[in-house]
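Dear colleagues,

As part of the handover before I leave the project, I'm documenting each prediction I ran so the next person doesn't have to rerun anything. This entry is a single chain, and its sequence is reproduced below.
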Amino acid sequence: MNRILASLLIIVSGITVRTAAQQLSSPLDFPVQLSGGFCDLRANHFHAGIDFRTKGTEGHALHAVKEGYISRISVSPWGYGLAIYITHPGDSLMTVYGHLQRFTGRITDLVKDKQYENESYTVDFSVEPGVLPVKQGDLIGYSGNSGSSGGPHLHFEVRDLRNNNLLDPLEYYKSRVPDTKKPQVKGLMIYPIEGKGVVNGSSHRQKIEFKNDPHENPVVSTVLEAWGETGLGIRAADRMDGTGFSYGIKDILQTVDSVETFRSYADRFSHEESRSINSYTDYAEWSRNRVFYIKTFVEPGCRLRMVASRHSGIINIDEERIYHIMITLSDIYGNTCRVPIQIKGKKQDIPPADTAGAHLMRWYDYNTFGSKGIRLNIPRNSLYDNVGMYYSSSSVKGYKSTVHTLHRIPVPLHRPAQLSIHIDSVYEPVMNEQLGIVKVSPGGYRSWIGGTYRDGWMDAEIYELGDYAVAYDASPPVITPVEPGKWRERKQIKIRISDDLSGISTYRGEIDGQYALFGFDGKNALLTYDFDSERIHPGYHRLKLSVTDRCGNRSVYGYALTW
């Protein structure tokens, strides 16, 4: 009896999920088109939702897609910008609306009160269930381009509150978004496993040449002769009807001689898993060339649940015969692209792994490294695979320490490692607050990491093995008013702020000594204040703006204005 009841519950549960999917209405007043898909590949993360197109413009009405209540509101110069989170208690879902231009009515008032209470443009706060209830179709705001958005659109998410999973929102909108286009292959790669495999006499990765037939199916032209263990990688993108955008691949299946060896299905993930994209893809290729190759094999330290295969995906070539590999790419509609690859098993010498001078770090272990002027501590389960780390150092003008090279190629870390670098005493002293660790990229570009000064050392957290040094930032931020002669006419103040290295930490605007709410558009480095008749009255006023960078360098700008 209990088994029958359990089976009925499973069936009912499935029906409930499908019914709920049909009940999400459109957040927009015009036909749905997507500019971004769920699990699209991004730097260090998977795209957590879908992006609705908004005709390339801002200010379109946004509606709640289901009854519930606004449970969280956030405002930030980065990330989702202006965002609303709506909880739907009936089915334990939450929907998220990001990059808004502005909120509406009571939401606007609540946010503004919170900003003045905290004296901060950036706010992120929870809302009690009875404060802002919404019905399906209620107006909640207007579409925009706030935060880290690369253009006007609505970022939309569906979350399962029972397990904090992010779900593919397209499951709820398939009937509104027609699609007959299959995924397209843009590149193929083969990866002999160092010390265990060889392809065409080499133990290094190689691109696989191919061309498309008249039906846009890839036909491989490269002759592949291999022995030992190897893996494959694919660069691909999905397409949709009526747009020129590219999207991620929903379903990837690899078979060897008709036997499944790898499967990934992008229907859900958690924020904690998102950084695993750096194992799911070829991180070195992304770092160097800014293209993503998805690896159809699994590193031992990757715990990404969407990789559902029971196998590692590694192909073991141990017989002198033809191995028939098929990689099948499918989208949510079942549009499919198949990539046949043949590997000829040919016995050949496998070059041993080059471990001379390397410091072995195991993916499952706590790893430490130390040399003159540097200490590195990597927590357990931070690496995705074993690494034979090569270390070197060099003196470069303009830094307060030696430049330390941690490995020859970039290696991602799932959890942050603790890096300590000693400050070289031969350099002229500066204030400790002006020091910070930087990541040095090819061409000398420096990314500020920061850190804490400790008895001649700088300590900081890093997420990648690479080149690091201690730099200093003694230059204050730059404050540039934008057409101040037109502020009175436009009833709006615009000021651009920038910093040459460590980046902006805080800013504060005051009018007549009282806090003034300046919005901050981070990607354009633009501060904006709209004259607020409730807080300032027509007449003569004194504006003061102070801006501080992450090293404590401070700039102050003053201006007398009449409104």
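The helical segments are 2-23, 105-118, 277-280, 283-289, 487-490. The first helix runs from residue 2 to 23.

All the best with the project,
I.
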